[in-house]
Amino acid sequence: MWDSFAPMGGRRATQFGIAITSLLFSMMSAPAEPSGWIVSEVARGDSWVSPYWGYCAPKIATDGTAYYTVGLWGNSPETSHGVVYKRQDGVWSKGAELPGIYQPPVIMLDSSGRVLVIYNQWEKPILILRGRNPGSIDAFDTLPPHPDMPNAFYPGAAIRGDTLYFAFCSTPSYSMYLSSLDLRTLTWSPLITMQEGQIESKPKTAWTYPILLPDANGVHVVASNCPDGGDENSYNIVWYLYYRRGELTPAIQERVAESPVGNTAYATDMSVDSEGQIHVLHMFNVHNYGEPLPADADPAGTYHSWRPADGAWQRERIAPATIASFNKDDKTLTAVLTVNGILQRLPLNGNAEPRPLVAPEQLPGAPGFVDVLSQSSGSNYSKGMALVTDALPLPSEKPTSRVLLAVLPLNPVGENTLINGDFAQWDSYKGGGVTTTTVGVPSGSIPNHWYGGPGVGATATYDVIMRTESDPREMPARYLRVSWSTPPENWGEDHHKGVQRYTFLEYFGIQDVHRFAGKSVLLRFKARCSEDGVDLIPIMWHSYDAETPGIVAVKGKGYELFESSGVAGMVAVAQGAPNPLAGSKMKTEWQTFEKILSLPATDGKSITKGHYTGVGFDLTVGKRITVDLAEVELYELRS
User: Fold this and answer.
1) How far apart are CA 450 and CA 464, in angstroms?
2) pTM score, whole prediction
3) Peptide bond before residue 172 is cis, with ω within 30 degrees of 0
4) Model confidence over 170-212: pLDDT tens digits?
5) CA-CA distance, 422 to 475, in Å (whole number)?
6) Contact between 477 and 467 (Cβ < 8 Å)
């Protein structure tokens, strides 16, 4: 609520003095763990189908040090082959080639960290490769297929410990089977017939795209039925089954969702939460052909269905019909969606709204199929969520051109390096804010390490506001308020070449120009504005040389400004209008913003005494507005 933009009076921090500095520090909330993702190109080439088609089985795995994925290349099924990829120390490397692949491969890790690659060939049994050493992607042993497997299509796989679970559809009957392989003894369990196929008449019974999730007592299975085969390839029933270890019949077999034939019900992922509830992401009532659904039918879209303890399935629509996967951590189950060409994340606890995972400009084209790091992949989850997707690069003259991409977590190195980002230290506090016109505030007159200037002709007040008992507890304990009573008259800074853009707040607490040189950082802060849609542009800068004639005060020589490129490792020089990924559009409600900035090396620069690394905030509007900032944090990042 913006009642706090009334005249300050009682909201002013009138007891904010040196005598209670220690009390203010005791009131500091623990800094939130920073997050962020890097978009990393794995490879590009030509493929007749999405290399991540069939995301019912893992397409990405990690041992906590390296990431692994598999591509599929070739202009037709007859010419296709796979390639195993590994990312370590920030670089993707190419491993073994896999000839004659039909459907995209599956990748997992066994209990010793050896890579498992599973893929099918036309009308042949499955091929299972296991790395000869942990982390190896170019030397594999071939494990035996199930002796009763004639061929395997739509493979689904999962691993728990040293047991590999495998489900597949076999032709010509289109029956679906389930089995498991003991990776220590290389012995298979008997084939379980999950569903006999029926393809002589419509609607057909042909289960496809099995999703497997083992637990300590057995294995959860979700499959989607295809009632019309090659004619339309739509799906109408989402099935859930649970098999106890060693049993040939399911302890549970239930319909999660069913749509009339011609209206798709199709599962894209499954998870089990910490309370043992089953969760399924699926499309539902998506019209393909035939008579439209009645007006009172549940609307078409992507649904989250879950099975609580009483066994009755419940569901809610969370998005238009789209690709969706689960990410599960200790506290939250999150859906990762592609909506309107944007990767989004949606926590499934409460009334959260979907938020972009990465900016669309970070991708070379709209994301295609998506697979999120899975509980079933044998991975180490210590680094958090990661995913792979493919995109059709735009513009492209070839419809088969594809780029494989990984969206990987960026991890902070050490602690927050920005001192007094919560504005708790204000040694010179005089009982009120500091008001200035045109010129910057007197040195040291606002919270320690901070400095501000309102713009030419403008008058603004810099003050710190404390949360009161009547404020919501989720509000910051304190925040810096910059309030303009007179807007700027001429506020285009020379280094922005006539563009109306100026820095109103600066931080000088990093007295080393080398501190983040050649590195990427995450700048995290909370902000709000008295007016929706005002762009706040975080910046950083290197101040190299403040002494040498011809260099001092010369942009590019004595100093250089940087803004966010949106991509770790990509430097964006701040000059002129900000690039589309640099800004943070504020609302009248508090928001948390995270910006990735990359700074270049200092090699070849003239560096003198007094060098430093600066942090600041720019505006591109000249209005009578009020901006609030809180909990400014700065972390070095590594991928």
Assistant:
1) 12
2) 0.71
3) yes
4) 999 999 999 999 999 999 999 999 999 999 999 999 999 999 9
5) 13
6) yes
